[in-house]
Amino acid sequence: MSAEDKANEVSADAQVQEPTPSSPDNDASASSDSAGGPITLFFIIGLAASLVLGWVIFPQLLYSKKKQPVDFNHKLHMGLVDEGCQSCHFFREDGTYSGVPKLAQCMDCHEEMQGDHPEEEKFVNEYMAKDLEVPWLVYARQPDCVFFPHAAHVKLAKMDCVTCHGNIGESENLRVYEANWITGYSRDIWGKNIAGIKRNSWDRMKMDDCSECHQKNNVNQASVQTHKGGCFVCHK
Amino acid sequence: MKHEKAKKFGMVIDLDKCTGCGTCMVACMAENNVPFREDDTDKLISVAWMRVYRLTNGKPFPHTEECFLPRPCMQCEGHDGHSPCVSVCPATATDYDMSTGIVSQIYTRCFGCRYCMAACPYHVRQFNWWDPLWPEKMTESLNPDVSVRMRGVVEKCSFCIHRYQTATQKANLEGRRELEEDEYQTACTQACPAGAITFGDLNNPGHAVHQMVKPDPNHGGRPKNPKAFRLLERLGTNPKVYYLSSRKWVRRAGDNYIRQEGSQNHS
Amino acid sequence: MGGAVGNAFAWDSYEACLGQTLGDRWDVLVEQGFWENTDFSQGRWADAFETDSSKFEFAGSQINALPAYNPVSPPGDESFYPLVLVPYDSMRLASGYIGSPPFLIKALEATILKGNDVLVEVNPATAAKYGLKDGRQATLSTPRGKAVVKVHVFDGIMPGVIAIARGLGHTAYDKFLAHKGASYNALSAVVEDPATGLDAAWGIRAKLGKA
Prior knowledge:
The complex is a heterotrimer. Chain A is mainly alpha-helical. Chain A is built from nine helices and two strands. In chain B, strand 4 and strand 5 form a beta hairpin. The radius of gyration of chain B is 19 Å and the shape is globular. Chain B starts with 8 loop residues before the first strand and ends in a 14-residue tail after the last helix. Chain C is built from six helices and nine strands. Chain C has a six-stranded mixed barrel. A two-stranded antiparallel sheet of chain C has the order 7-8. In chain C, helix 2 (14-22) crosses helix 3 (24-32). Chain A binds chain B through residues 91, 94-96, 143-145, 147, 149-152, 155-156, 220-227, 230-233, 235-236, and chain B through 1, 3, 6, 80-82, 86, 89, 92, 95-100, 102, 104, 106-109, 145-148, 158, 161-162, 164-175, 177.
């Protein structure tokens, strides 16, 4: 038998077998007269339960929930400072970004109580008075292998903070911090939406989100393998 | 994909100046968080981004000569950036960046198949057979700008890319896009007590490396400097690390020759 | 500067210290950025050494004229210990009692340390004579002691001489250094220099055999 014949025979077999997948349907429709109702109902309940488990319960189990040590009011402080976000989140001379303020920045005003808010009292008594740094949980903390220069984005590209960090400056309370139990990364990296759907530019902080913007603006699109951004632009 | 102001970082190592002291290796290990093992004498599995080899001319005593040869990653450009390791990586964990000319290695992307190690003719790449280990207290002096590598991934010299990143972000803060020559130098370059290593942008006529080894059309596209050579030139890997030696046997040792081929006169 | 050091410093600042100690020169330095010592003259090198060559000599040629001069031979019986063991300093090893840090031990060539054995340099002719193979273990013995070493067959060493790197064989320090290789000090001995009466140590007779 030549190879061609064999191929023909195989395809003939495939054609013969084609109608067979429909036979269970026939069986099901035949038996639906007696037990179709309960089985369909059972199937729908099972499906619904699986969907709820997979889309609602599992994502909640995936993340730990932690309260910030002090409930900081961004809105209140924004009304008091002159230079917006950069008043507290500033650049150091060597080009690095200071990120979350240290006690030294808070000390100018909060060495003593400024008001009578219980959160301020907690901050002044438990941290400022004891000279202890506040163990803030950083929502936007990236993995160790990521190099993110704020200078390139804020100073060169003239981007505003909101594009990546959202309207956190207008918030009166700090959100609950959620960390992935397995990776330890903040949920802000993957995004709130478990399906990965993104409505605002600040909804997610994955590599794809960085890459999307870099591609749009033709930033360092010099990789030989991917024809996109070079790896060492953002990785270290 | 040609970038307008593409850089091509390269290195020139003057073997006449190298004393083999190993300072470049130590500086590299300290800078790049290279781990230790209790017994690190098996150099096939010992992780070191920079390694100093010891060559001899093979002549009997007292005519024996030695030469030390420091070997970082050659950052091969190959043809159009298809360096040997980059072409074989199935995970896109290693890549050639046309804007800097540096071959990147992303440890979180590498899954340790070690194709790149087989492809690299310079033994530049090393595999982490064990989780990294540092002597007690030395973990406190790790460099936060360089990620540490886990067991099961390949690593190699990055031309201290983190120094380029941090220097660039400083320049950006000051409103500049371009770096001065001395703002980005590798750890080994700065550490070498003999000044044997020169580092810079091969594409920039203002940089020392460009002047030292610029290609000469009358010399078959190779540097005019008769002392200059590259390792395994004939393979066509197109490395960006050049060596200088006034000794012919050293220059010949940089490539493979068939026994009968050319002059056997070691001078 | 702070604390006890700061209190012990007699000046308010380092600048004040420089101003006082350098005197007029400091004013010139501040003004011009440099200060020139007009009194300085270069040494008269031609007269610096009273040797025949007018240059530095390790052993002056006049020493040969001394009646008591005899080359000092290394300790040991030549018929039993046919080779001479000499130490050398590797640039990548701290050779004194101070231990090499882990960085240096890792950077050490595989021709000096392999596993826990130090390698000794042996000329190919010597190696052939005593049936030693490159990279193999061997027993090194001197009148003072014995050590297990590995053989590094190397053209750069004189036939009849074996060289061992100084700075290994520590028993102290951490696991990255201790009990690696052998120490030359444990194998060597001193002889009296007949000219000066001082102890001299430069080499020792040795035997190298298959382990």
